[in-house]
Amino acid sequence: MVLLRVSLVCLVATAIKAVPNANIKRQVTQLRSSYDFIIAGGGTSGLTVADRLTEAFPDKTVLVVEYGEIEYAPGVFDPPSTVWGGVGGFASFFTLPTLPNPEVNNRTGLVLAGQIVGGSSAVNGQFFDRGSRFDHDAWHELATAGDPSEEKWDWNGIFPYFKKSVTFTPPPASAVQEHGYTWDISAYGGTTPIYSSFPPFQWGDHQLLRDAWKELGVNDPVECNGGDKDGLCWIPVSSHPVTFRRSHSGLGHYAAVNTTRSNYDLVVKHQVVRVIYPNNNPKNGPPLVEVKSLIDGQLSNITSTGEVILSAGALHTPTILQRSGIGPDNFLNSADIPIIKSLPGVGSNFQDHSGPEVAWNYTTPLNVYPLPSEMSNPSFVTSATSSFNSIPATGPYTLSMSNSAIFLSLPSTTPNYHLIANKILSQLFSPETFLPSSLHSFPAIIQGYKHQLSVLASLYSNPHLPTLEVPFATGTSARAINLHPLSRGTVRLNLTNHLSLPVLDYRVGSNPVDFDVYIAHLEYVRKLINTTTLQALGAVEIAPGVERTDLKEAVKDSLIFSFMHPCCTAAMMPERFGGVVGTDLKVHGVEGVRVVDISVLPILPSSHTSATAYAIGEKAADIIIKEWRGGKGRGKGKGKGKGKSRRM
C-alpha cells in the first residue's frame, strides 16, 4: 500500500510538471495547416473528448482551443486559506453577473465558470455526485420524444460512462471507522487519472447534523452514485486519494497524456469567435473555426478536415453558435448577424439550481472539536498545513467544501406534492405564459417546454426522485436547493460587444410553481431545528424566523440564483421541440458541428454537474469514434501539414 501511494503521488507530481511542454501553443502561427478535429474549449468535457480521440486515432490530429491558460488549480479549501466555506484560492474564472430578476425584487446574482485549462472542473466545489436513474431516463425521453435513436442517454446508456470517467479509491479503514463511510464499489470501476475519494477529515459537528437528519426519518443508503439517490448520502470529492489535491480534466485528460501524443495540440489564450461556412451554406461543412488571440487581438481561421466540437460550456457554447448565425432568428436579426440556421433553442432553456436558506443559532455551546472557528488559531492552521503536505495528506484541508448531503423527493418533503404536480399539469394549456416573450413566436420552443412540464410533473410525483438537496459539513445554516426548476432563462450575446461576456437572464421564479417548491422545501428543512438532537443544544431559528409568515417573501430575500450549475442552453431534443442537438450531439441542420458539454442536457439532473460533464465527454467520444471507424465521418485529411492557418 505504501508503494502504491508513493507511485500515485509521483504520477500526480509528474503530471503537474508535464504541463508546460512543447504541445502547448500560444500563437496560431505555431499550429498545423489543418486538423481533423477542432475542439472549442479545454474544459471538463472538451479535454475528455480530446484525450479519447487522440488515443483512438493516432493518425488524426486534434486541436483544443482554450480561452484560459495553464495554471495550478488549488482545491476549494487549500492552504493558505483560513476561512472554510469562503472563496478559497481559485484558479482563473469568468465572473458573469445576471440581469435584475423582477420576480425576486429585481435582485441580481453572479455565476462563476472556469477560465483555465480544465474549465470548471478546476474551480468547482469538488462535489462529485451523479443524478438519479430517473433523471437520465427523463433525459432520454425528452431527447427522443418517441423517435427511434441508436444512442441511448437513459440511465443504462450513460451509467457505464460514469463508471469509466473516474477512478474511485475507497477510504482507509481508519477513516471508515471514524466517520462511518459507506460505498458500493460496483458503482465505480474506471482507471482514468480523474480521481475521487472520501476525505479523511470531518468537522466536529458533522455527525451532529447527520444524527438530526436521521431523526427526521431520512434514509441512510450505502451508495448514492449507483442510480438510486434517496436519503442521506456520502459523496466522493474530486481529489487525489493520497495528496488530496484537486483532480481536474487539465491534469487527468491533458497533462497526464499529452507528452506521448504527437497528434494532440492545445492553443491557449484564444477565444473561439464562430464557425464559418463557405458561401454561408450550413451543408458545406465542416466549417472553418475563427479564433481571436487574447494576446494581440489577431483574428485567424483554422481549418478542420473532420468536424468541429463545441465544448465551451452552457454559457459560452450558445454564444459561439449565435455569432456563427445559428440561433433564434429574431435575436440574430437584432444583432445584425446573417442567419445560417434558425435554431431558437440556442441559448434558450437556461436552467440552474437555486434555493433559499434556513439558519439557526445554538444557545448552548457546542462541545465538539474541531470547528471551522479553529482556523483563526495560527497554531491550528500551521498544524493543518503540515498535515495537508504530508503523505498521505490529512486534516481539514482535505475536506474541500463538503461530501455529505440529503436528497429527498417532493413526496418525502410535503403531503401537498400532488397539488404541485397538478399545478404543473394545468400549465400545459398555455406553457408560453411562462417563457420569455421573445420566444412566443417559436412553436417548437413552446412544444418543447410543454413536453418538459409534462415530464417534470411526473418526476415531482416520483417518491424516489430527489427534488431537494441540502449539502452540509458543519455550521448553523442549510440551503434548500431546488434540483428541478421549472423557470427558464436565456443566454444571449451582448449586443454592444459580441465578444464580451454573454448576457444572462435567469428569470428565477418566472414559473410561479417554483415558489411552491421553494416553500415546501424550506418548511421541511426548518424541521431540522426542532429535532431533539438540535434542541438539546438550544437551537433557535433566525432565518427565515418563526415569526415570519410570508414565506414567499422570505424566499425572495435569501434565494441564491445559482449554485454554479448552469446548463441546458443547447438542449438535446428534436428540432421540432426546440432542440439544438440530436442524440448523436450533432447540431440540427448544419454539417460538421457537434456540441459536447453540459449545455446539451434538456433538464437539470438531481446532482452537481461535474461528474455528468465527464460522462458526457466519455460517451460523446465513443459516439464519434464509432462513427469515424464505421466510415460515416466526413473528411479524410490527416491534418499533418505544417503552415499558417488562414488569417482574416
UniProtKB/TrEMBL annotation:
Cofactor(s) recorded in Swiss-Prot or TrEMBL: FAD
GO terms for MF: flavin adenine dinucleotide binding; oxidoreductase activity, acting on CH-OH group of donors
Flavoprotein is among the record's keywords: yes
Keyword Protein transport (UniProt): no
Signal peptide (UniProt feature, chain positions): 1-18
Keywords assigned: FAD, Flavoprotein, Signal
Top-rank taxon, per record: Eukaryota
SUPFAM superfamilies: FAD-linked reductases, C-terminal domain, FAD/NAD(P)-binding domain
InterPro entries attached to this UniProt entry: FAD/NAD-bd_sf, GMC_OxRdtase, GMC_OxRdtase_N, GMC_OxRtase_C
Active site: H565, H608
Domain Glucose-methanol-choline oxidoreductase N-terminal, residue spans: 313-327
Biological process, per Gene Ontology: secondary metabolite biosynthetic process
Family: Belongs to the GMC oxidoreductase family.
Protein name: GMC oxidoreductase
Annotated source species: Podospora fimiseda
Lineage, top ranks: Eukaryota, Fungi, Dikarya, Ascomycota, Pezizomycotina
